[in-house]
Specification:
Blueprint: H1 2-10, H2 15-23, H3 42-55, H4 74-77, H5 80-88, H6 90-96, H7 98-107, H8 118-133
Helix pairs in contact: 3-8, 5-6, 5-8, 6-7
Length: about 140
């Protein structure tokens, strides 16, 4: 009955609130703070696109669910630190971070550690920002 009440009261499932709260997390890993400028760094985004094409497209696409989640809108759903920690620290993230655990349960596929360093993870984040800005 509480779930139905929550649906009526706010138009969404009751557990969605907790999911949104978890999405504000910075995740588990070395990235504790990222400074994100207002404008997109096109050169950094281009580097990120190349890394994405080299290391990520076997499992991720923009605009469709694949082996892993659709990455369109990821910068709106997750904190920058969370995104970077998921890239550089995927095993520990799926063991300790509630959102990453949930994603592992949904997709039933552990994200592979691609040995991406923090600088390259930042470039990937910039690519995601550029992609999301175009949506």
């Amino acid at each position: 009955a509480a779930t139905i009440l929550a649906l009526v009261a706010c138009g969404k499932p009751a557990d969605e609130d907790s999911h949104e709260e978890m999405a504000s997390s910075k995740g588990v890993g070395p990235v504790q703070s990222v400074v994100i400028p207002a404008t997109i760094d096109a050169a950094l985004a281009a580097k990120g696109l190349q890394i994405f094409e080299d290391k990520c497209t076997a499992c991720h696409k923009h605009g469709e669910r694949y082996v892993g989640p659709d990455l369109n809108g990821v910068t709106e759903r997750r904190q920058p630190e969370w995104i970077m920690n998921m890239i550089v620290n995927p095993i520990e993230m799926t063991q300790k971070d509630p959102v990453a655990k949930e994603l592992l349960g949904e997709y039933l596929s552990q994200m592979t550690n691609q040995n991406v360093n923090e600088d390259d993870a930042r470039a990937l984040l910039e690519h995601f920002r550029e992609n999301d800005a175009s949506l």
